[in-house]
Structures are given as structure tokens and as C-alpha cells.
Amino acid sequence: MQLRSPSRSATPRIEELIARRDLFAVFQPIIDFDDGAILGYEGLIRGPAGTPLETPFALFSQALAEGCAIALEQAAARACIEAFAKLDYDGKLFLNFSAGAMRQLAEARDDTLALLRHRGVDPQRLVIELTEQSSIPDVGSFLPVISTLRAAGAQFALDDYGTANASMNLWVRLQPDIVKIDRFFIHDIASDPLKFEAVRAMQHFANASGAQLVAEGIENEADLIVVRDMGINCGQGYFFGRPHAHPARKLSDDARDALRANHIAVFPETTRAVSSASPSGGMASAKMLVHAPALPRHATNNDVLELFNRLPDLHAVAVVENNQPVALINRRSFMDRYALPYHRELFGKRPCLQFANASPVIIEKSMTVEQMAKLLASDDQRYLADGFVITENGQYAGLGTGEKLVRAVTEVRIEAARYANPLTFLPGNIPISSHIARLLGNDAAFHACYVDLNHFKPFNDQYGYWQGDEVLKFAAAVLAEVCDPTRDFLGHVGGDDFMILFQSDDWQERVLRAIHAFNEGAQRFYAPADRLAGGIHGEDRRGNPSFFAFVTMAIGCVRVEPSSGPSLYNSEEIASVAAVAKRRAKREANGFVLIDADESLALLRGQAEAAHAHID
């Protein structure tokens, strides 16, 4: 009988791999964005190639099952240190450890230092990363571990921040030298406004705490440019290099060119409608809240009279029970009734609910602006005369009036429209000005293009606002289609005015494509008879009968060249010159004009100086 040798495909035990030294180190570069240099390398471990234990996930899952995870971490660290020493690369070596492995590393500090010295690796080149899987029940007892490692010369990093156990609590208490942002937040950050805001919050805290940020998971140029322009200085990811046993000693030409790209990032804008944002509702409530005393349910009409006489500006008084509103008494209605003969004598000592509105309009302080707007449009208009009660979590907070409600909703919506247009959800005037300022501050070459629609007002008058809004949304869709979202910023100034800040090299082709697409598509918004006639009959701004051709698009563009020193312009001047270009474009048959910023600004400034001198 032939004896068969044991199958080599059987999964070996982790202890066997460690004993046979079958663990292999690979390294991924970490890049300094300022000069494109490789700051260091993260050491990662791999099992035998082609086996079920090749990946680190499989390795550590098996180690956990066998109860030897810390032994695997220690063996992995030794393998990475030995391989890194043989490579003889410059820069730091980043190593991953769980909290338990870090404790043992600190306890065996002398052995670790001896290993590093033996391999010729300076301990000051070591960065110890606390992995995100680590939970630390007693953070206070862990602080001496970090102190020991720092005393040996190593730096301490918090890995994969934002997931699992890598929390703000640990950041505050452990005070890491380096924080590595988890790849979840970096992947697609160029198009995800919530990820952008989350990373920006991390950046603010890093500035306050003195920690250096490293963005993990950078896989494309768009995400890199956003992270770079946010001011984060370091990153790693497949865009710079995959983990390899012999990684590159310097950055590739493509990655270096991306880092040095002249265009600046278009930050993703959070443009949610105001109606869905409860904080805006809170802002409106705060604007209209009138702090006023309330009366208990058992109060008398004489108590109401005394309060109104004491507070002559009080338009109403709420009646509450357990601090919850149950009724509202309007001042004018109460005083008119009380002025009748003998009413004070007859009703003065009776309960105040006798003359109260037992079903008052109640607005919760957290109510959204949209809910408040629906109240304005409802058939129930009692609040215009009586006012209404404002509550916070069901408890009485104060009063409001119909006038204040209208003003508050209007002000909040106007303010919100400065940030995001409520119709198209495109960025409004403040983000537009902010992006122009960023372009100027970074000496970026760009074209500011002001977009306007010809004959839009007559169309709006003829077909109504609903159809007019559809044309505006179509215009926004056409403009968005021709923009590169990573280079070109599209904003909605208001009405039928839009602004594009182009950094794309083929900007002019994009402009002409937008004009053509809109002019062709806009005709479908007309009735068949008007399409056959080539337009509509209406009145001009002076009330004279006129014929208006189809709505068309006009785009006036301003070329802004980078300056050799401080910017020669500001965002308001660029917007003003773009408006001049737009007015000229509306007179051109093809709807397009290009002007130079220097020449036009000199003319505008001269006109302003002449007007000022005339006033003086």
C-alpha cells in the first residue's frame, strides 16, 4: 500500500507560520503633500502566497480563533522591522498594534529597542498605530503605555479614525501625535458633502489638539485635490501605491503632477432645502419668540385685566396647566368685551377660560420653516389676530404674532437662499463669492461666466411661475451637464441668473454646448401654436405690445489670469465684470462674449472714481 504525505493545502496553524517565519512584510507609502516626498511607509503583513492565510484578515481571524493574536502582532512587527531595515529606505515606519500588544511592547521596551538597534532602525523613525479594533476599558491605565513608547522615541498614532473604537473620546484622552482618517470618509469625498463636512470637523479639532492628519484611502485625483485644498498635509492610498514588498522610493510622475495641479478643488456643497432643515426652523422660532408671562388655569378675569394693564405691549396671554398651554386670551378681544357695562362686576371673579380661545394655534419651537409656511397658507388664519403659542418639547416657551411669523419665515428663506437656491438647490451667492475668493487666493487661472436667459420674463408672464420654474430647472440641468464637477463651480445667483467658474481647459466648448442644448430644449416648454409662430405676443417693460422670440441662453465670460503676487481683484469685482460681459452677450446673436478682466476692471474702476469725484 502506498503511503500519502499530508496535504500541503491544509491550513497551517498560526504558531507554525510564526515558527517557520512564513510571514512576509509589504509596505505602502505615506506622502507629504507639501513637497511630494515620501514621509514613511506603513508596514503590513501577509501570509504564504496562494494560501487561505495570505490576507491579513484571514491571518488575524485565524489567530483570534487560536488565541494567539498578540503573538501574531509581535511576529508581524518583527517581520516588518527586519524587512524595512533590509530595504534601507528613508522615512518613518508605521506599525499597527492592538491595545494589548502595545502594553506588551511597552513592557518589553528594552527588547524592542535592542531589536531596532540591531537592525539599524532609529526608534525615532517608528510610529505606533493603535488599530481601530482595539477597545480600551481603562483609558487611564493605558496612558503610561503611550508615555513609555514616546520616551523610547516613537510617535503614537490613532488609526482608522471615525470607525469602530477610534472615537473622539480616545483622541481627547490619548492625545495622539498623528490621526489617520479612515478611508470611508476619504473615498468619494470630492462628491459627498457630508463626508467633506465630517473631515473638516476632524481638521478643526486636529488644529486645536496639535495632531497631524493622514488621509487614508486616496484612490483618485479628485479626492486628492479636495483633501489637499482642505489643508490636510499627508495621505496614503492606491493612488500613490499599493502595498508591496519593494515599494517605490519616490512618488510617480502622475501622482506628483496631480499634487502640483494648478486648479483648485470644487468643494462639495451641502445644498439641502431649507424645508428639511430643522435648525432653520429653530432660527425662525427664535426670531419671532416673544417672552411673555402666562397665567394658570385657575386665574380669574381680574388677573387677566391686571396683567394687561401692567404690560400694555402684551398682545395676548397664554393660559397654562402644568406649564402646558391650554388656551390663549387675545388682548383686544378681551378688553373690548370687558369695556361693556357691568362686565367687570359680573365676570371679574370668574375663571379666565370664559373669554379664552380653548384651541389656540401652537407652534413647536423645532417646527421646520416649511411647516411654518404651510401654516401661513392654511385656511385657519386665527393667529393673525390672536397670535399663537410657542412651545419647546410641549412646554410653554412664549408667544408669537402673525406679523412676526411672516417676517421670520421670509428672513430665514432669504438667508438660506444666499447659501443654496431653493428651486435648483445650487449654491447661492455666499458660496459663489467664497469660491471666487479661493480661486483668487490660490492664483488659479479661471473663467467667470455669468449666465442669463433672454425673454424669460415675457415667458414667465405668459405661462405662469410654475412653467417658468421648470425652465429654470432645465437651465440648471443643462449647465450642470457641461461642468466638470471636480473643476467647475456652478452656482445660482437668483431668478434666471447663474454663475459658472470654469477651470476646465475646454471651457469655451462647454459654454457653446450649453447654449445650444438650452436653446434647442427650451422650445418644448411652449405651446404648439407658439412654437409654430416662433415666440409669443406680450408687453415690453413699458407696456407696449411686442413679440418675443423663444427663451434663449446668453453667457458672458471673463478671463482671469493668475497674478504674480497678491491678487489684483476681489470676488465682488469679478462678479461685477462678469455681469458686464453678460449684458454684452445678450446683444450677440450667438449669446456668447469673452472679455479680459484687466481691461474691464480698469474701466469700471475709472467710472467709479469719476462718480466719486463728481460727488465730492
TrEMBL record:
CDD domains: CBS_pair_GGDEF_EAL, EAL
Domain of life of the native organism: Bacteria
Organism: Paraburkholderia bryophila
Name of the protein: EAL domain-containing protein (Putative c-di-GMP-specific phosphodiesterase class I)/GGDEF domain-containing protein
SMART domains the record matches: EAL, GGDEF
MF term (GO), any: cyclic-guanylate-specific phosphodiesterase activity
Stretches assigned to the GGDEF domain: 444-597
Domain EAL intervals: 7-257
